[in-house]
């Protein structure tokens, strides 16, 4: 089993987790934990590059959402490089009317405005909506309420958006939420040259070495 970083809560309204595949080339450098059980922020390194991956679970009432977004913003600014951030999870916030079908009419709330301000301040676009501006796909469905919402999404640093290969909403085994999927490439800034190899021909004078050579 790979590396697990869990943040548990006593009920189903909190708790997040980050899993790393054991064969992944990423290495975990550090982890930031929200004492309220709302987010984890992991610093991962690969080939001398680093990224900050955050998993969040936002509250579903307006007052708590404001406190959550303030705490998350403070951690992002003080503990990360905001040009190398990928945030995913259940925000419990629909960013615009396209992200809601059914129920009461969509309207901007203080929580929505706070999140939009955070996105603008830290330059963290909703990459799914940028790549699928007219999509009517949703991540949360309630048959009893006749309601569909897109409340699970990625916010990523603008500097990483050009490296995104794919972002999708997929069917999952969860009872009422679909999965969100992001594929992003990691560029190698260090291109290899033609190289030069020199053979030490004095080794050919060593009979033991010559016996190891396979033609």
Automatic annotation (TrEMBL):
The keyword Magnesium applies. Mg(2+) binds at residues 90, 92, 176-177. The active site is at residues 57, 90, 177. Probably binds two magnesium or manganese ions per subunit. It comes from the Eukaryota. One of its GO terms (cellular component) is nucleus. The record marks 152 as: Important for catalytic activity. CDD domains: L1-EN. InterPro entries: AP_endonuc_1 (IPR004808), Endo/exonu/phosph_ase_sf (IPR036691). GO terms for biological process: base-excision repair. Its cofactor is Mg(2+); Mn(2+). Keywords: Hydrolase, Magnesium, Manganese, Metal-binding. One of its GO terms (molecular function) is phosphoric diester hydrolase activity. The keyword Magnesium applies. SUPFAM superfamilies: DNase I-like (SSF56219). It comes from Acropora cervicornis. Gene3D superfamilies: Endonuclease/exonuclease/phosphatase (3.60.10.10). The record marks 92 as: Transition state stabilizer. The record marks 177 as: Interaction with DNA substrate. This is LINE-1 retrotransposable element ORF2 protein.
């Amino acid at each position: 089993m790979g590396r697990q970083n869990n943040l548990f809560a006593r009920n189903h309204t909190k708790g997040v987790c980050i899993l790393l595949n054991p064969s992944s080339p990423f290495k975990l450098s550090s982890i930031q934990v929200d004492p309220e059980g709302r987010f984890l922020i992991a610093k991962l390194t690969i080939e001398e590059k680093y990224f900050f991956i955050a998993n969040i679970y936002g509250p579903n009432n307006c007052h708590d959402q404001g406190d959550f977004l303030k705490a998350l913003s403070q951690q992002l600014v003080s503990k990360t490089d905001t040009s190398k951030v990928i945030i995913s999870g259940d925000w419990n916030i629909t960013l615009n009317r396209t992200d809601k079908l059914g129920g009461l009419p969509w309207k901007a709330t203080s929580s929505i405005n706070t999140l939009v301000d955070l996105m603008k301040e830290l330059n963290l676009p909703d990459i799914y909506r940028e790549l699928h501006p007219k999509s009517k796909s949703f991540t949360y469905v309630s048959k009893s309420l006749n309601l569909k919402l897109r409340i699970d999404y990625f916010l990523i640093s603008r500097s990483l958006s050009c490296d995104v290969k794919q972002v999708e909403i997929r069917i999952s085994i969860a009872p009422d939420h679909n999965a969100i999927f992001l594929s992003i490439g990691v560029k190698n800034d260090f291109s290899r040259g033609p190289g030069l190899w020199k053979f030490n021909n004095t080794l050919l004078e060593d009979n033991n070495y010559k016996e190891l050579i396979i033609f």
